[in-house]
């Protein structure tokens, strides 16, 4: 009887208190969506590292795919669920590294959000990459280095991809890919000769006449499958050092 009496007279105070506590809980802590993804999807910052979610499926981030920006100028994006370069990174982005991503195509607009500031771009371990669209490097007036590494499905780069003006470009490296033919650089314009064009460890088999027209301190063609170099293959080029190591017998057609 005493318990009932105590509860009965304290109930008017007890229930309002419980309602107030419940209100604090539901308004303070973020709710989760039906997919288990936090409802708040704004980039978070931990120890000066900004982690931006990558939206790739039905508007929701796929676990294991994200971008880490140590500064507003330096970002690394990675993860098998990353199928495109996010367009919402820093407007002052200078260095972009994309690694272990599921990207199949570098579209013409992939890098355009960062065209005014981007200096160095790297695509590493992009084993699903099959295509590079013309226009992807257009208007990158600050770009200094382009590096594509370990893209075994990339077998061809259209000639028009490098028909453009990149005034500050000094390093161009496309290595460990499935390239069977040299990209054409004859219409690539820069302010000065490149320091390096590195095309090592690809699947290039033949260098045809007039196929190589470049200005560079170093042209590296080591460890391809080159078996034939046709007459005047390098006509019009200015190359300080040419490196060609090969696995098979090399025939030079004069």
From TrEMBL:
Gene3D superfamilies: Ribonuclease Inhibitor
Superkingdom as given in the UniProt entry: Eukaryota
Example GO BP: adenylate cyclase-activating G protein-coupled receptor signaling pathway
InterPro entries: LRR_dom_sf
Main location: membrane
Keywords attached to this entry: Cell membrane, G-protein coupled receptor, Membrane, Receptor, Transducer, Transmembrane, Transmembrane helix
Keyword flag Cell membrane: yes
Organism: Cacopsylla melanoneura
Protein name (database record): Follicle-stimulating hormone receptor
GO CC annotations, alphabetized: plasma membrane
Localization of this protein: Cell membrane
Any GO molecular function: G protein-coupled peptide receptor activity
Topology in membrane: Multi-pass membrane protein
Transmembrane segments: 6-25
